[in-house]
């Protein structure tokens, strides 16, 4: 049963440096075998209500928005916003996987790139990358994964522009993909950024880019069905390296029509009690049914980020996510 609607939003600043506070016995474990909190559709907190509808959306949505904007636009906004915290606030809250859906506006002669989810953001990609760098410079032992995805409207020239911006901004903080990304290795070399790029041709050209990170997207409207999907994916076995278990629910037209006064936020917050139980039952590690990144919507609500971080207390090398005797009590965080 889904729980009552929760509305509190808070940033737990204690989580801002959680990686630096992990016990030394976890420093040599690859990041893809640790538990990392992520945000789904990271940049939707700054969607532009006056923006054109993304070219990725159906022609029907575009037509309805054009002729009935007063009705359609508020609905689009209610079901497009998945986060309310800024990117800096998300990082400070402990999020270490950022889901960047990048796009170029149709008929825009400039090289400006935006984030997108139904509509485009008010901010450009380059400014947010600088914002992430600014945060990293004051948190030298934290590592962030930037998942660059979607690429609606990007041609070869725009891909080159985006990759050049990434290299210019992060420079030596970029971790090459041939490195096994343990915390000890990252700290020794000053690496703080792992960029996954959902365009194989570009990845092959640049050693600083990592392949696209698989995202387990349930595409479900009910919490129970989403958890069933995630459990089925676990039984099939986790990928060898980074992957995301998405605990985000997804609306469809039928659901929206049945909930005319609802929103994605209402839908998400009611699901949190059940999803919280599921998250706390997970184990990070290399074994078949272990998890890695868990990403959600409205990450400032409830204790989602803290719960995901604390799953790392279950690790007791050598990794064995099935053993409940893995020492959940003998590994502690110094400041969580």
TrEMBL record:
It holds the Pfam family PI-PLC_X. CDD domains: PI-PLCXD1c. GO terms for biological process: lipid metabolic process. One of its GO terms (molecular function) is phosphoric diester hydrolase activity. This is Phosphatidylinositol specific phospholipase C X domain containing 1.
